[in-house]
Design a protein that fits this description.
By secondary structure, this protein is of the alpha/beta class. It has one domain: HUPs (Rossmann fold, 3-Layer(aba) Sandwich).
Length: 202
């Protein structure tokens, strides 16, 4: 009889700042895939993003902790930052070491799935986890389905959840322009950004 192992979700990203889109995606994956918990793992230095003015890793980790503190399904992890890891494959290896006996599910947006073949060692990533993919507004469903099929239906689940068109870059731009970000980020994150003077006018 096939052993059913507990499943842990992992959502990575710069979280600069974490926003409601991250939380909605994690919540959907948790519900649809029966996850034990979801780890939010801020990247030390995301290789796919131009983050010359990146907010310090310790600050992004603190914001992530504030974003998830009120939800028992979610927990932040400084694993990637602490170990100076660069690639998702290596981060997943570290998570597997910390959570032995768990099946890992890496949660990403459909925009990331479409570009997954450009990631470092995508087959190595898939050797360590399955993928849960949240549709992003504007992404062609047929393109997303084709990208999922490329890696195999057993390894990629496209979630049928509400697409949320919020991005961290949009939040940063609104702060810089003096526009409100309430309801785009958790209240504790909004207060932290204001208190620390993050993303202000240049």
């Amino acid at each position: 009889m096939h052993e059913v192992r507990p499943r842990v979700g992992v959502i990575g990203g710069s979280f600069d700042p974490p926003h409601v889109g991250h939380l909605v995606i994690a919540s959907e994956a948790h519900a649809r895939l029966g996850l034990e918990r979801v780890l939010f793992v801020p990247a030390a230095a995301p290789p796919h993003k131009d983050l010359v003015q990146r907010t310090a890793a310790s600050v992004r980790l603190e914001m992530t902790a504030l974003a998830v503190v009120d939800d028992l399904r979610f927990v932040e992890s400084g694993l990637e930052i602490e170990r100076g890891l660069v690639y998702t494959r290596d981060m997943l290896t570290a998570v597997a070491e910390r959570f032995p006996g768990r099946e890992l599910v890496f949660i990403m947006g459909s925009d990331s799935l479409v570009q997954f073949d450009t990631w470092h060692d995508p087959e190595g990533v898939l050797a360590r986890c399955t993928l849960a993919v949240a549709p992003r507004p504007g992404d062609d469903p047929e393109v997303v389905a084709a990208a999922a099929a490329r890696w195999g239906a057993a390894r990629v689940t496209v979630l049928d959840g509400p697409p949320v068109g919020v991005s961290s870059s949009q939040v940063r731009a609104r702060v810089a322009a003096g526009l409100p970000i309430r309801y785009l980020v958790p209240e504790a994150v909004e207060e932290f950004i204001a208190r620390r003077g993050l993303y202000g006018r240049m």
